[in-house]
Amino acid sequence: MMTSQSSPKNTFNSSSTPNDQPIETYMTVDATAGFQNSGIFLKQGQRVVLEPEGRIHLAVAQIYNRAEYIKPLIIKHSPSGTFAENIQRQYSQLDLDDKSDKNIFNRNWMGPEGESVDSDFLNDCKLRTDLNWGTLLAIVMPKDNFSSQTDPFEVLKNQGELQTGQLLHVFKKKEDFVADRDGWLTFIINEAVNSQYSPSEKSRVYYEALKKAEQSLSGDYYHKIGSVPLVWFSDNVGAFRVKVTYSK
Fold this sequence. Notes:
Helix content is 19%, strand content 22%. By secondary structure, the chain is an alpha+beta fold.
């Protein structure tokens, strides 16, 4: 879909054939899944217009944490006597000085532009380390032999050694692209991936650590890690809806 890895730029082709009848369709991009094939096959040089909308969240536990704190915070910062004693007891103030995961809520719902928040040790594991967390990404895949549950770095490798720099950011209200190869229009969000195929050493180390953890939990009915490469996708929630306009 584009050729520059270090400094990607959106490409726009202003020329069109008068007889072209544009086709409009919609694609839902799930925040919990890997690469998702839109089912739209593009030819090299073909123009496509993408119009994204919707919101996602990358830490579902923080949604719950925030909700737990809202009523106690209202009570704490309201004038004395605003609330009856039974209400104050029911929503007693929680400890904000406790920085454990059980009460952190610094992440917000985000649109296709993503969110600029540092992770404690996962920043180097993002698909595109130069873009925000959760940014909507698109690429043209030459083959359709991949699943949304497959390791994204493995998918890129098997597609002819595609690079993460070829993943285009789709966060404006309307993005215009020109396909630089024949293939399937495909989407994913910018999230951390643990992969043996990642260019990030940390990502590879975390992959091996989780594989060992998975083996140690073998036979434990109550604790399942699931997909190691996509484990950080599992606590996401929400989806983007993308209007796709193109001409055959």
